[in-house]
Amino acid sequence: MSARDSILSAIRTGLGGSRNDPAAIAAEAADLLAAPETIRPPLVAATLVDAFCEKSEALGATVDRIGSIDEVPASVGRYLEGQGLSAEIAVESAALFRDLDWGDLRPRLAVAPDAPAAVGLARHGIAESGSLVIHSGKETRILLAFLPLHHIVVLRAASIVSHLEDYAALLVGHETSPRNAVLITGPSGTTDIEGSYVRGAHGPGFVHVILVFDA
Amino acid sequence: MNATTRTGFKARSDAALANPTLKTAIDRTTGTAERKRAAALAGFAEYEAARSRGSAIKDHVIANLDHYLEMFERNATASGAKVHWAATESEACDIVIRLCREAGAKRVTRSKSMLGEEIGLPDALGSAGIERVETDLAEHIIQLAGEHPSHIIWPAMHRTREQVAELFNADHKPPPADDEAASMVQSARHVLRGKFLSADVGISGANFLIADTGATCTVTNEGNAELTTTPPRVHIVTAGIEKLVPSTSHAMALLRLLVRSATGGELTQYTTFHCGPKRPGDADGPEKMHIVLVDNGRSEMIANEFRDMLRCIRCGACMNHCVVYRQIGGHAYGGTYPGPMGAVLTPVLDGLAQSRDLPFACTMNGRCAEVCPVEIPLPTLLRAWRGRSWRAGLEGPRMRAGLAAWAGLARRPGLYRMASGIGVRALRLLGRSGWIGSLPFAGGWTRHRDLPGPTGGTFMERYTARGARRPEDRR
């Protein structure tokens, strides 16, 4: 008997031999998601955007609010200048970014192992936790979110969802799942030495959100 | 499985109690963890409801585990991953080593996984001549020290900052600027960066296996899981079969409990769902993804008194709040998993004969069950092991004789009262200063601490003095 068969058969024996009807199992699983508001915290502010910003900032991220995607290069420039970083910057290969006028900045597609800063695009924000969601894909390199010291993330205000389940509902079935769906909640950190918090472990030590209100 | 299991729990805990820096190190981390968890739950009014729901989700999965395993296998396969099954720890290691060899792997990066420790994967990789790079900061520390984890969330919590500095100074080139935590983290970031990008295979565990997508979920605060699983050609996941959840939404309900209970955060910095290998056209990612589903004693627990333990989501709250763990630390337990949950699991994994002391290393104060986010009745499960140990004849003659004497007394109330009256007077004599510093024939009770002396008479003396009637005088 293969390991697979022996494990499944041990489980079935342990469960008493009777198998439940898949439809009944699915109904029970759905019931376990009922009334989500009773098992999760309410948002910390009245609007999705305010709740998202409050949570992000509490986690140590910074947020810049701009009116249109065209203002992204100027916002990035302000951040780099404020942090004393060079104008050479890794930028995700999103079509949205390619068409922008980057002015004095020198965007590159490659991200070096010790890149000081990179600009990426988030698919969603989650108001409950202040998380940014990125999906791997043709245009999105996962490493762009992990290699740089400063991760600058462009997020459209309209793409912020309320709670974790609201985002999870979008990931049903492997057809809709990217290889990696990453929820980024504040800068990388560790408490592995004596429990004391140090920012910037392996991932970015700084997360800067550029929130775009372009309706 | 740790080789240390065989050297004896009592000897190890004696050594731990005699080690002054260990107590300091444990207190620093568990104290912070306890405070942060309390603060996180104070801000989560829905916690009790979330906790019942979380337990119900895990119970539902275990009651339909065959169904969910098959569903997961189907969806993971459809996403392009290959699913393997391992009944035992050696089968699991054999599969991983074979996959590494097929990939021509010289260097393997590993993101912290307690299941990996449980099956002995670090040693198996070493024996196979494959370079293993631990990427979690704490795992990096204990790899340099040649040790096993002493906690499931903070594997290196037994080491002070100064001890870590010593390890890094010897290994890191260049060494850290000073022995502040920030400089040492910076140094590890620098040293490990190159290894992440040059690994042939990346190995991770999974906090959840999502049945309806076929994805595996990892949570880290450092970002090392993603740096482990994205650059190499092959990603291998090792996960226990109890990690299943029906959907991503169910995982979210459990994540809220896991993170608050573990570190006091609301969500880890990185929560990642890994679904299959690199897709056509993807900008990065591994060409192959393998998932090894490991049983290693879990399927047997479904039918016995330890089934509730399959709900465990490995948050570590039980050990952070355990008075015994906080005295002796994790290594004294001798198994992969320490603390209350470890004392339940180690006899399953290593056999009761090897680990019968663990269920007895418990005061039954119930703190672990109180803080468990999935309502596991840990003291009840520990008591079940004590019963099994008794029935299997694993208790020594002294214990059996002592319990027989006690049982004889307990069945004769008059004699019991007389004996406890003599006992309490003797203890009062020994504890005239208020504390008992040593006990004749029972030195183990006072070797590492003083006991408070009794302040009054026996329970029944004080009970009757308060005007209550004796039970046999009623009616």
TrEMBL record, chain A:
<dbReference type="InterPro" id="IPR024185">
    <property type="entry name" value="FTHF_cligase-like_sf"/>
</dbReference>
<protein>
    <submittedName>
        <fullName>Lactate utilization protein C</fullName>
    </submittedName>
</protein>
<feature type="domain" description="LUD">
    <location>
        <begin position="120"/>
        <end position="212"/>
    </location>
</feature>
<dbReference type="Pfam" id="PF02589">
    <property type="entry name" value="LUD_dom"/>
</dbReference>
<dbReference type="InterPro" id="IPR003741">
    <property type="entry name" value="LUD_dom"/>
</dbReference>
<dbReference type="InterPro" id="IPR037171">
    <property type="entry name" value="NagB/RpiA_transferase-like"/>
</dbReference>
UniProtKB/TrEMBL annotation, chain B:
<dbReference type="InterPro" id="IPR009051">
    <property type="entry name" value="Helical_ferredxn"/>
</dbReference>
<dbReference type="InterPro" id="IPR003741">
    <property type="entry name" value="LUD_dom"/>
</dbReference>
<dbReference type="GO" id="GO:0051539">
    <property type="term" value="F:4 iron, 4 sulfur cluster binding"/>
</dbReference>
<feature type="domain" description="LUD">
    <location>
        <begin position="69"/>
        <end position="294"/>
    </location>
</feature>
<feature type="region of interest" description="Disordered">
    <location>
        <begin position="455"/>
        <end position="475"/>
    </location>
</feature>
<protein>
    <submittedName>
        <fullName>Lactate utilization protein B</fullName>
    </submittedName>
</protein>
<dbReference type="InterPro" id="IPR037171">
    <property type="entry name" value="NagB/RpiA_transferase-like"/>
</dbReference>
<dbReference type="Pfam" id="PF13183">
    <property type="entry name" value="Fer4_8"/>
</dbReference>
<keyword id="KW-0411">Iron-sulfur</keyword>
<dbReference type="InterPro" id="IPR024185">
    <property type="entry name" value="FTHF_cligase-like_sf"/>
</dbReference>
<keyword id="KW-0479">Metal-binding</keyword>
<dbReference type="GO" id="GO:0006089">
    <property type="term" value="P:lactate metabolic process"/>
</dbReference>
<keyword id="KW-0677">Repeat</keyword>
<dbReference type="InterPro" id="IPR017896">
    <property type="entry name" value="4Fe4S_Fe-S-bd"/>
</dbReference>
<dbReference type="InterPro" id="IPR004452">
    <property type="entry name" value="LutB/LldF"/>
</dbReference>
<keyword id="KW-0408">Iron</keyword>
<keyword id="KW-0813">Transport</keyword>
<feature type="domain" description="4Fe-4S ferredoxin-type">
    <location>
        <begin position="309"/>
        <end position="376"/>
    </location>
</feature>
<dbReference type="Pfam" id="PF02589">
    <property type="entry name" value="LUD_dom"/>
</dbReference>
<keyword id="KW-0249">Electron transport</keyword>
<keyword id="KW-0004">4Fe-4S</keyword>
